[in-house]
Specification:
This protein has helices at 16-26, 43-47, 50-66, 83-94, 112-120, 175-179, 195-206, 227-239, 341-359, 373-376, 395-400, 415-418, 453-461, 466-469, 482-490; strands at residues 3-12, 33-37, 102-103, 106-107, 123-127, 130-134, 137-140, 143-153, 157-159, 187-191, 211-216, 243-246, 248-254, 271-277, 281-285, 287-290, 294-296, 321-322, 325-330, 379-382, 388-392, 405-411, 427-433, 438-445. The chain is of the alpha/beta class.
C-alpha cells in the first residue's frame, strides 16, 4: 500500500543546491517543503568534494605561506604538512565517522547538523531514492509525494570514467576516493588536467606521494582559464616532482587483483597502465585517479515518465524551469549550465524566488527572477599552489564571441604582496570590452588571490565603467593594490 503525502515543494537531491531551493521557496511563508535524499543531507560538496578538498589543501597552503616569512620559516622547516594531522582536519571539517560506520562500502559522515538546519527551516527530510512518476508526483520507496506548486531536480552529477580497456575493471579512484583518502599510495597516475586533477595532485604531493604522473589529453592544464594560470600551476607541480605528460591519455589498464575496499583505500594491488600519445610508456602504479569530468545525474530520476530524455543535462530557461513543464525546475550540475557549487546555489535561490512568486500570483518582471550570472560572470577559485581566481571571459573567449577587447596584465608586485613574503610571485590580467569600456573578465594567480575575485565579479555584474572603477580605491598595503597597476595600463 503506497502512502501519499502532499507538500507545496518537493526537492529531489539534498546537497547545498537542493537545500537552498527548498529554503527560498518557502521562507517567510506557510508553504511546506520536503527534500528527498538517498545518501547524506549536504550532498557531494559537504562530504566528497568542496569541503574535504579544501580541508586537504589548507595545511599545505598554510605551511607554504609560513615558510615565506622570517620568524615563521625557522619554526616551519618541514617541506610537507604531517599527513595524519591533515586527514584528521579533513575528518573534522566533513564530520567523517570512523570505519565502523559503513556507507556504500566506505566510511560515512554525520549529517545530523544538516538535518537540524533543514528541520529548523521548516523542511522535512525524507530518506530514499526519489523518482518522478507523473506530473508533480515523486515516489520514494512505498511513499508517494505530491507537490502542489513545484518539483525541483537537484541531483547533481557523477564522476565520469572513460571507456578505456581495463580501466573500470581496475576500480580506479574518482574524486570521492581522493577526497576521502585513507591509505596514501606511493605511485599514482592522474588522468586529467582540470581543476579536480590539479587540486588532487597538489594534496597528494602534500601527503607524501612521490611517484605522481599526470596524463593530460590537451596541451595545457586548466584549459578554460587564461594560459598563464595553467602554466604557473604546471611549473609548481613539476618543481615538487610531478611528471606532467601533455598530449597523453591512458590506452589500457591491467590490474588482475582489483578489489573494492571502500572510499579512499587502495583498490587492490599494483596496476600496469599503458599511456599513449606524446608521453607514451608503461607505468606500474599503486592507484589510478580518474579526473576526467562529470556527468549530470539524470539517468535514474524518472524523467522518462514525463517524456523527457533520461540522460545528459536537464535543460532549463532563465527561470530555471524545464520547458513544457512549468512546475518542474532543474538547478545545479544537473542542468548542465555550470558545475560549481556556488553557481548552483545561485540558481537555487533564483528558482526558489520564482516558485514563491508563482505560488503567490506575482509577475516575474523583476531581475531577481532571472538567472543571468551563470553565463558570462562566473567566478571560480582553484586552490592549487599558486592559487588561481577568475571570473568572466578570458581573452580567447571574448575574441571567439567577436568582442573587441583591451587587455591589461602583469606581475602582482605591490606592497601588500611583498608583505606576504619577499619571494611572492603572482600574475594578474583583466579583459575589457573596448567599445563599452567595462570589465569582461579577470584572472589572478598567486597566494591569497582568491579574495580578489569578488571585486572583479561585482564590476562585471554591475557593468561598472572603467572611469568609475578608477575611484574604487584599494586599501594599503594589500594585494588588492594590483587593481591600480591594471587600471593604470587602461587609462
Amino acid at each position: 500500500m503506497v502512502g501519499e503525502t502532499s507538500y507545496d515543494v518537493v526537492v529531489i537531491g539534498g546537497g547545498p543546491v537542493g537545500e537552498n531551493a527548498a529554503d527560498y521557496a518557502i521562507r517567510g511563508s506557510d508553504r511546506t517543503a520536503a527534500i528527498v535524499e538517498h545518501e547524506l543531507l549536504g550532498g557531494e560538496c559537504s562530504y566528497w568534494a568542496c569541503m574535504p578538498s579544501k580541508a586537504l589543501l589548507g595545511p599545505g597552503n598554510a605551511l607554504g605561506e609560513a615558510r615565506s616569512l622570517g620568524g615563521c620559516r625557522e619554526r616551519a622547516s618541514a617541506s610537507n604538512p604531517e599527513p595524519s594531522g591533515v586527514l584528521e582536519w579533513r575528518d573534522t571539517v566533513t564530520g567523517r565517522l570512523d570505519d565502523s560506520s559503513a556507507h556504500r562500502g566506505g566510511a560515512t559522515h554525520d549529517d545530523a547538523g544538516q538535518v537540524r538546519w533543514a528541520n529548523g527551516a521548516g523542511i522535512e527530510v525524507i530518506r530514499g531514492h526519489g523518482r518522478l512518476v507523473g506530473e508533480k508526483q515523486v515516489r520514494v520507496g512505498d511513499q508517494l509525494l505530491t507537490a502542489r506548486e513545484a518539483v525541483v531536480i537537484a541531483t547533481g552529477s557523477t564522476a565520469s570514467v572513460p571507456p578505456i580497456p581495463g580501466l573500470r575493471e581496475a576500480l580506479p579512484w574518482t574524486s570521492r576516493d581522493a577526497t576521502n583518502i585513507l591509505e596514501i599510495p606511493e605511485r599514482v597516475v592522474v588522468l586529467g588536467g582540470g581543476v579536480v586533477a590539479c587540486e588532487a595532485a597538489t594534496w597528494l604531493l602534500d601527503l607524501g606521494v612521490r611517484g605522481l604522473v599526470m596524463a593530460i589529453r590537451g596541451d595545457r592544464l586548466l584549459p578554460r582559464m587564461e594560459p598563464f594560470a595553467g602554466e604557473r600551476v604546471a611549473d609548481a607541480l613539476r618543481a615538487r616532482g610531478a611528471d606532467l605528460r601533455f598530449g597523453t591519455t591512458i590506452e589500457a589498464v591491467d590490474r588482475p587483483d582489483a578489489t573494492g575496499s571502500g572510499y579512499g583505500r587502495l583498490h587492490g594491488g599494483p596496476a600496469v597502465v599503458r599511456l599513449t600519445g606524446d608521453g607514451a610508456g608503461e607505468l606500474t602504479v599503486d592507484e589510478i585517479l580518474v579526473a576526467a569530468g562529470r556527468s549530470p545525474a539524470t539517468t535514474d530520476v524518472g524523467l522518462d515518465a514525463l517524456g523527457l530524455t533520461a540522460e545528459g543535462p536537464l535543460g532549463v530557461d532563465d527561470h530555471l524551469t524545464v520547458p513544457g513543464h512549468p512546475w518542474l525546475y532543474s538547478v545545479g550540475d544537473v542542468n548542465g549550465r555550470n558545475a560549481l557549487t556556488h553557481m548552483g546555489k545561485y540558481q537555487a535561490r533564483v528558482a526558489g524566488d520564482v516558485i514563491a512568486a508563482r505560488a503567490e500570483g506575482r509577475e516575474l518582471d523583476d531581475i531577481r527572477y532571472v538567472a543571468g550570472s551563470d553565463h558570462a560572470a562566473v567566478p571560480q577559485v582553484v586552490f592549487t599552489r599558486p592559487e588561481i581566481s577568475s571570473v568572466g571571459l578570458t581573452r580567447e573567449q571574448a575574441a571567439d564571441a567577436g568582442i573587441d577587447v583591451r587587455v591589461a596584465e602583469g606581475e602582482i608586485s605591490v606592497a601588500g604582496s611583498y608583505l606576504l613574503g619577499p619571494d611572492y610571485s603572482g600574475y594578474a590580467s583583466v579583459v575589457v570590452d573596448a567599445t563599452r569600456d567595462v570589465l569582461l573578465g579577470a584572472t589572478f594567480v598567486g597566494p591569497q588571490t582568491g579574495e580578489l575575485v569578488h571585486s572583479a565579479t561585482v564590476a562585471i555584474v554591475g557593468e561598472v565603467p572603467l572611469a568609475r572603477l578608477w575611484h574604487a580605491v584599494p586599501s594599503y598595503p594589500t594585494v588588492s593594490e594590483v587593481w591600480l597597476r591594471l587600471l593604470d595600463q587602461l587609462r
